[in-house]
């Protein structure tokens, strides 16, 4: 392989990384905003990052909900289970290209497992699925 070929390959790889970086940065920003909203128990802030009809599952509710419905259900959950901290333990990408995050949510009434999926759409990354499941020490 000639020096010219190596230069072209390196240039192409560098360009590909530069083009991918803004998308990764935007995804990380949304992930951080979702984690912050959950940590604060802020249903209104969290709903801003949801798709129009989000797949949501909580201990007492499970269905597809509009953003407004999801916000009300989350507000009730956060009122009953005041968040203390959310620690993301796992993250990755599924086969369809959606990013997922799994973490442990400590609340005043016990621990929960939180899973959310971010999907890239025309409006950027949005939460397409949110699950809050009973954890080990839920009271």
Count every beta strand, where a strand is a DSSP E run of 2 or more residues: 6
Give the N-terminus to C-terminus distance in angstroms: 65 Å
| Helix-strand string | HHEEHEEEE
Q: List segments where confidence is low: pLDDT < 50 over at least 5 consecutive residues.
A: 21-25
Helix content: 40-55%
Write down the overall geometry.
elongated
The count of helical stretches stands at 3
Q: Average pLDDT value?
A: 85
Instruction: Using the CA coordinates, give the radius of gyration.
Output: 18 Å
The description of the largest β-sheet is: 6 strands, mixed
Structural class: alpha+beta
Determine the strand fraction and express it as a percent band. 35-45%
Major β-sheet strand ordering: 2-1-6-5-4-3
Name the descriptors.
alpha+beta, single chain, elongated, six-stranded mixed beta sheet, 139 residues
Question: What's the topology here?
Answer:
Elements: H1 3-40, H2 43-47, E1 50-58, E2 61-66, H3 67-80, E3 83-93, E4 99-107, E5 110-121, E6 124-134
Parallel strand pairs: 1-6
Antiparallel strand pairs: 1-2, 3-4, 4-5, 5-6
């Amino acid at each position: 392989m000639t020096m010219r070929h190596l230069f072209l390959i390196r240039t192409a790889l560098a360009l590909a990384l530069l083009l991918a970086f803004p998308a990764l940065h935007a995804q990380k920003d949304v992930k951080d905003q979702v984690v912050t909203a959950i940590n604060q128990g802020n249903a209104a802030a969290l709903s801003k990052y949801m798709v129009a009809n989000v797949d949501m599952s909580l201990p007492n509710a499970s269905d597809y909900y509009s953003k407004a419905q999801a916000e009300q259900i989350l507000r009730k959950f956060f009122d009953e289970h005041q968040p203390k901290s959310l620690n993301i333990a796992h993250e990755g990408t599924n086969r369809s290209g959606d990013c997922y995050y799994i973490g442990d949510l400590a609340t005043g009434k016990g621990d929960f497992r939180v899973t959310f999926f971010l999907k890239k759409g025309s409006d950027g990354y949005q939460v397409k699925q949110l699950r809050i499941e009973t954890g080990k020490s839920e009271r």
